[in-house]
Amino acid sequence: MKRQVPGLAETARDSRPEIPDGVFLVRVDGAQFRWHAHKPFYVLRLSVLEPRTLAGQSIVGRLYCTQKAMWKLGWFLRDFLYDPELLAHEQVDEKALPGLRGVVKISHTVLNGILLINLDGFAPASQWEELSASLVSSASRSNPEEASR
Fold first, then answer.
1. pLDDT digits (tens, 9 = 90+) for 128-145
2. Is the pTM of this model over 0.85?
3. Domains in the chain and their CATH numbers?
């Protein structure tokens, strides 16, 4: 039996704004390894620190652990200043990841009707000022009207 419930659609929607494609200073809030026969991966839960307009929003993405994708996991760990000793021993301690900070570039993809977040690139947190300044200046060159607001 179907029942009409007025207002249900409003409460079912996520009230937080969607995180746009872009570059963000983030903190790792959680990481969990997920085994899959063909594509094992880590689920990363990141909290946006900058820009301030999106501070506190969450980004959830995957880093695959296949042979072909191992370079990206290494890039993430190095740029987020993961323990070099554990990295040298090829160990990832999920408990050592929360609290790490860095810069992440994200984009969105729709796959089979599901919106997924791609983790496209990483940089150390120390480069945030430089990266955010270059993004603002390139945005003002491409759209001077919006930059003057």
1. 999 888 766 665 555 555
2. no
3. 20-144 (2.40.50)
